[in-house]
Design a protein that fits this description.
The structure holds two protein chains of two kinds. Chain A is of the alpha+beta class. Chain A contains five helices and three strands; from the N terminus they run βααββααα. Chain B folds into two domains: about 250 residues, no CATH class; about 160 residues, no CATH class.
Chain lengths: ~160, ~450
Amino acid sequence: MTPESTSPVPATTPQTPSVSPAKPVQNALTWIMTIKSPEDYQKLQGLVQQLSSAPAGQNPIAAAADTLGIIHFLRFVFLENNTKLGVMTIYDGDFDTYVNEFVNQVGPIFDAVLAHMADAPPLPTQTYRAQFNAYVRANDVPVVMFYSAYPTSTVLDIWAATGK
Amino acid sequence: MPPLDLSDIQGFILRGYNFPLARHLMLQINDASEGKRFVGSLINGNARLPQITSSVEWGAVKPTTCLNIGFTYEGLKALGLPPDSLASFPQEFVTGIAGRATFVGDEGENAPENWPSDYATAQTHIVLSLYAQGSEVLETATAELRSAFGQQNALIELGHLDATDLPESRVHFGYVDGLSQPCIEGGPQLRRPDMQPICPAGEFLLGYPSQNPDFSYPVPTPSILGRNGSFSAFRVLEQDCDAFEQFLRTEAPKIGMNEEKLAAKICGRWRSGVPLVLSPDTDSPNPPLTTEQINNFDYVPSDSSGYACPIGAHMRRNNPRGERVAGAGAHIHRIIRRALPYGPLYDPATPNDGIKRGLVGHFICVSLQDQFEFLMTQWVNGGTFAPGLYGTKDPMLGDNDPEDSKFVLPTANGPQIITGFARFVTTRGGAYCFLPSLTALNYLASTEMIKA
């Protein structure tokens, strides 16, 4: 075998766009859950407020999302006169795989939220993963139109480009 | 953590034997009682029959053979494991490798329906892996095992596959292999130090804290069955050496590179085993890398751009080390590789010899879903887990299609791109195996489990 002795080789096909993936990398989740009762809504509201008001770096959901590096945006909203909770996110890649990773990281938080839902799957989620996945899928509102300003960029691509 | 009970853990989980020969026998159990009797005979101290090798150090003198065993879900069922216990195994193991084939990219020519019936298939109940110091002891031990399981057709040998450690421990594409393995807490020390964290025992053994915070993998019940066990994806991977060499010859000149450098870029190491990150321009650095150096590196921060080792190179994909990747970290998806080449050494002077050759062995982990399958779906066949992959697949192992395959080599002047190549590795057999502890083998051999 011989060492490579040539000087740096100019790129023969330097156009970055030509190596774009064949299909968009982003996906949407619109997960709508039915809350058990007004009392459960009150408790959920307290839980969500507690999470969202946590000091930077101490919100476990945000910390897990930062660790996973696949979630572009995530928001919780109460819907239909506070009878439903919506979790809406734009994420990269394969749903099942990364939900599984999320459950490994913050399963107990999912459990705390799901305990207030009318049709919750068996808990804890770390034990009943398949049922949890099926529950999320069953309550995911299908997308009828999707637009992205950067359909081929992952969270990690954006972080790399922005120096995060 | 209490010390590991090395006498209870199958040997090939915690250490590589470095034996020159291996023979994998694929068995089917037709009679539960005889199946139990056979399993019991492998752990009862019978001096005339190879016994299951544990992880206990053997001192200065190596044994002439080592033996390990894995059971598929169907195999555990055929042994009469009670339904409650069967239901306590993880779903991907229950489904089995054939049922998960599409998910991990074993489609088309790679699909289980195309696997030879004498390799591991959906009919396999037991994978018996025998390792030997020489061919004579291999044949003797095989004959002893066959006489033990072959009586009255209670256990049928569906087939066997022999593997050989090729000169310099190279694999068929010509690379020196086996340089990097996880270091497990409580297990043997690595021969070649690296910068990667020590893996918690529960990343490879059931019953210990795992690599995930506050979550360890459920131990199949009863605990004497599950604890100290592990899982493996047993794989038969056929390698198309002609196509790989032709690819190097054709593509290297197009990007102004010699064939050996392109081979290195595809793998992440030169074929000599020298990693690109430590030696980007030559496979023979002067002074040569020592044993202490050859695996002691990371991709970041020194090569975060991938100019030395492409981010999509086989080795960097399958073990991204400290690189930032999608998911909860690269270190939590590691696997132990216990595989050797099968088929004779490839000779480029006599191409198209028609001989089947490849790699066969066990890829060991505590969670087939979170380790082996994650690796195959996200890192080998997925193209979004790290920045700069552009949706590509593993150039060596991925299920590449000439219609859309790409390999991207980042350079300071922009990416060089190779397109239009097919896959070089075809899956020819496989089984998801449970690797029980010796306590569990005793339990499986007993009649007590029926009452559990």
